[in-house]
Write a structure and sequence with these properties.
There is one protein chain. This protein has 186 residues and is α+β, with helices and mostly antiparallel strands. The chain has a single domain, classed as tt1808, chain A. It is built from 5 helices and 13 strands. It has a 6-stranded mixed sheet with strand order 3-6-8-9-10-11, sandwiched between helices. Strands 5-4-7 form a 3-stranded mixed sheet, with helices on one face. Strands 1-2 form a two-stranded antiparallel sheet. β8 (103-109), α5 (115-129) and β9 form a beta-alpha-beta unit. It is globular and about 50 Å long.
Length: 186
């Protein structure tokens, strides 16, 4: 029954519509008012996510938090980054979705079912919405982290660098921190 109503819907989707969807192994997001479904992440994705969260949490200290997945309001798009870096004060708020102003860094960990979404669609949406920094973590084959920043007045990210296994990423957003890529490898 749910499949038929999804297929017959013609009006733009809203965040409230997403909230009414039943629990599902699929991840539902909205891009420009259209519903996007991606399969849930696999084990390798989740292990890399957990490792990155632990490494970054230690490096951030007490002013910042890394959490996720978390709803991000880019109206008319509503995305769910795998991880976000937010200020400690924001973490104390009771919200169902974050505003761009709440987020310093978004992180996507690429899965086979989300390659195009994580590499093209989501960074374009984040940059156009004004998210200051984007990190993409590749997990197929060797693990790598590519960091991007949004220059003032721009709507497209500039690549800061890519780091692979055996290397250490030196990042400046949200603060100076290093990420040993080997620590992310399952």
């Amino acid at each position: 029954m749910a499949e038929l109503s999804l297929a017959r819907r013609i009006e733009p989707w809203t965040f409230e519509d997403l909230q009414r969807l039943p629990e599902s192994p699929w991840r539902f997001e909205i891009v420009d008012g259209g519903l996007v479904m991606t399969p849930g992440p696999g084990l390798r994705h989740e292990v890399v996510s957990d490792s990155l969260r632990a490494v970054v949490r230690t490096a951030l200290g007490g002013r910042w938090r890394i959490i996720g997945p978390q709803n991000l309001d880019l109206d008319p798009s509503y995305l769910i980054p795998d991880l976000v870096v937010i200020r400690e004060e924001t973490a104390r708020l009771d919200k169902t979705k974050l505003a761009v102003a709440d987020v310093e860094v978004v992180v996507e960990i690429v899965s086979p079912g989300s390659r195009t979404h994580d590499r093209i669609t989501k960074p374009a949406q984040y940059a156009a919405g004004g998210v200051p920094a984007y990190w993409r973590v590749e997990t197929e084959g060797t693990v790598s982290l590519t960091a991007y920043v949004l220059a003032p007045g721009q709507q497209v990210y500039t690549e800061v660098g890519t780091w692979r296994e055996g290397e250490t990423a030196h990042l400046t957003r949200p603060t100076d921190l290093t990420v040993d890529i080997d620590a992310l490898v399952p």
